[in-house]
């Protein structure tokens, strides 16, 4: 006798929809498992990249720094540190500086320091001269001391001045930023504490300078920059390992030369790497529960595919059983048909997770080890899919073909999972999660702030979605159980739809459960991730006052009618700041404030514009003012400023936040010298702002940028966690669509028979179409309504508490999710129409005789 198992592959091709559903289900399950692994690793990579961007490029590698050295010691340190084996780092960039001192140039003695740095002259902007056989003097010192090309300081002991260069300003370019404390003069420090650098062209010239110029208080720095900045956590850890080995080697050389302790080795990227690892672990902890839940949904989908296969092969299975095949043999037949699509689906899930990593994850590059772990996860999924399929088919075959009448005990055990109030269990878990959410779910370390998130706090929105999904499925099941009391024969389309739903209450409840979970997690993930992005932008903008800000010379800014350089007038404004006992006073120009200030936060731009028109003084005192926060209102005196009268109040304002303060018009102050400090607020980036001020010769200090004002990692940690929630929501949505189609396919013969008989009894084709659309539309509407309500509700409840910087305003607020909700409803409608079309087609093509015989 020919063994029928040999024809399994040919039989599989006769049910292409089953193969497609099996492949898709395995793909989704594999994608969930492997994407969770890759996403957590990518979060570590994104955190590493962000941390690297916050440090100077030269500070990423090993560093040696020493102060109070003699010139001979500094020269010896530089020579010994130039090792041939740099452990993968580039050659060290050495710099040597003298102490800050007065240098005599033609009888004028400006404060300055002499220095040398490898390649320094290549990164300076020459204003005059340019010869590399003498000293390069910054413009500020040259103008103050009247230094010209060819001048020789210290009575001719110094080399001639061969170039005047543009002063290096703050923020420094990347090549200079590691040396900023030594090359940037600080006007707020005491006289002689800091000064600009007069550069020697090479190490030999610097070493030949007289002792009176260099002195015995020399500073030396050496940086070993990496060839490329680390992009993954593994690369960062490798960088630290190689950097430590290099420092050990150089330290041993210095110790052998008797220079122990003259320089301090450092690896500044150690702490940032630890923080990146914490971020990876936090994200992994946050996404693992939902990934596990989604995996369970995928396994349930595989079990459903196996049950659907049993139904389609029922006649053949009974024939094989009658010929002596047992449940295990029948399970083997199922595996022969479904193994290939399931293994292919698992492989495609791994490929999709890797290919789409840049779409759903914060970085496109994971650790190399994560790829191997993801591949192992895909293999585990494939084996688990085969196991579930085999077990389900074997149990189903045993129960249908071999099992006798079931007793009360067996029936109770089968009904037990339905009797357990799972929604009460998840609701009980949501209570401590809510308490954790409302009770400071974050802890921030003082050293390079890093976020430690309570996993329970992040789990609350998901537990809320799961509870509502379970409750919706249970209520729907109870309603369908009681639907036999409804008599809708006057509307046959609706009545038949209701009866079909009641006949398949279990599968329908499962589809609604998955769909509600999908839509709820999609809305919650999208909303909370968007809230974190907006909160970071708003808090940074409110803290700085604008996209970029610098403090400028008060003598220049305080001149009546003073204007900014032409290149900044369309995007910047001048703002004065004075501290008083009543609060901080902001002196603004109403005509230009909206051009530079950050007005996208809690302050409505239209409201501010309307108030600015009222700030223009009408002559005399008191002058109009706007009270900010809880500042006193009415007529009052603000220290040395004129008497003011408040005309309105605002809850917050850029730079002040919700702190007490007042807003005054610049034209209302008769004496602008009373203002403590002046700042330029701009919507341009900081480099453009400072470049324009440098070009105009306007001195500035204290540069701030909204992009770096706050440590973004705490916000990114939450954003990346819920970004994966969004991705899983999309996967679950696809799974629910597949489940709906699978449910239609499972009931294809029953629906085709009942529909065909109803058509022969006079049911019109239009009524048949309406009936199936009502049936499937009710399922989709229930899922969309419950999912959107719980998703939006979860975002509304949790957004304000998921605030990594609660001391800064504004708090995170729920975004407008109308577009998401409308798009979800539209896609759900399309899926319903597609599934309805499949159901109607099965009715119209049905052969009643064949259906009755089967």
Automatic annotation (TrEMBL):
Signal peptide: none annotated. The chain crosses the membrane at residues 290-310, 330-357, 369-395, 416-437, 457-480, 501-524, 720-744, 773-797, 817-840. The keyword Transmembrane helix applies. Keywords: Membrane, Transmembrane, Transmembrane helix. This is ABC transport system permease protein. It comes from Goodfellowiella coeruleoviolacea.
